[in-house]
Amino acid sequence: MEKYTITGRIGEGAHGIVLKGRCLETGEIVAIKKVPLKKLDNGIPCSVLREIKALQQLNHENVVKLLDVFPYGSSVALVFEYMPTDLSVLLYDPDEPLKEAQIKAYMSMLLKGVDYCHSLRIMHRDLKPANLLISCTGWLKIADFGLACLLDNNPDKQYSHQVATRWYRAPELLYGARHYNQGVDLWAVGCIFGEMLNCFPLFRGDNDIEQLSLVLRALGTPDEQSWPGVTELPDYKKISFPEYSAIPLEQLVPDVSNIARDFLSKFLVYDSDKRIQAAEALEHEYFYSLPLQSCPCDLPKPKVGKHGLCPNIPSPELHIPVSNFG
């Protein structure tokens, strides 16, 4: 810790404490995630190792930067670039609701970050608005790689289905799939897009069964034709649902353009192999229709002043969810 001085506390959660600090060499404001090691003999927790390994491989303008890692007493400290807020905060700001041009800008930045991760075969597995950090200049960066995983070339490789926050969890995960791909991230991107359009989560289940039921009611009951292999998923036969017919997208996302609905429909597909890839999504006509996406200078900025969020302005303790930093 001799390289940093602590200037405040950002928050606390299941994985540890996040502190606000300053690098003594450069003066840069940073976020320091302090993860306690409950049993020193067991070493660093797997989730922290995954996050470190993933972030050390990533260098992209739309992925949060891991600046340093070092032991900190009976803890391990991860130092990140400081990001004052996240998309979930901006999404529900009653004084400044997101405009369509701003939604396009955030979707573009999100897809560029996802495309970069996927090009390295990294599955994030927990994309959600709270894990999309926003800088003082309005730039979006993907964070929280604690559930990230490298996609194995072995088709028989099994992964945990206990990943992703419920509202953004792909249907194959809700059915207990152990074999899946980067499509789980693309489903989450679709859910995030729908939430930005509606200012409300698309599928807000209180438990896994209700979550799956909400998805089935929206997209209709899947079968082997619409979703090859669905009947072989581990939890498919554990619970039965009524036969649902898909509802029109006009009901799911009212008051938006047909182009936006078409774009959303490319992500919300049962068969993960048919979900639109991030690189392809960036070429969709949605981004070339009016209004065009905002430039960074027109994006919402963290509020400043006496209780400001930006590091250049003195402020009290900041209350940003710990999950933002993993």
SSE layout and pairing:
Blueprint: E1 4-13, E2 16-23, E3 29-36, H1 46-57, E4 66-72, E5 75-81, E6 85-86, H2 87-91, H3 100-119, E7 122-123, E8 132-134, E9 140-142, E10 149-150, H4 171-174, H5 183-198, H6 208-219, H7 249-252, H8 258-267, H9 278-281
Antiparallel strand pairs: 1-2, 2-3, 3-5, 4-5, 6-8, 7-10, 8-9
Helix pairs in contact: 3-5, 5-8
What would you say this structure looks like, in words?
This protein is of the alpha+beta class. Helix content is 27%, strand content 16%. The strands form three sheets. Strands 1-2-3-5-4 form a five-stranded antiparallel sheet, covered by helices on one side. The chain has a three-stranded antiparallel sheet with strand order 6-8-9. It has a two-stranded antiparallel ribbon with strand order 7-10. Strand 1 (4-13) and strand 2 form a beta hairpin. The longest helix has 20 residues, at 100-119. The radius of gyration is 20 Å and the shape is globular. Mean pLDDT is 86; it is low at 304-326.
Characteristics:
single chain, 326 residues, five-stranded antiparallel sheet, 9 helices, 16% strand, disordered C terminus
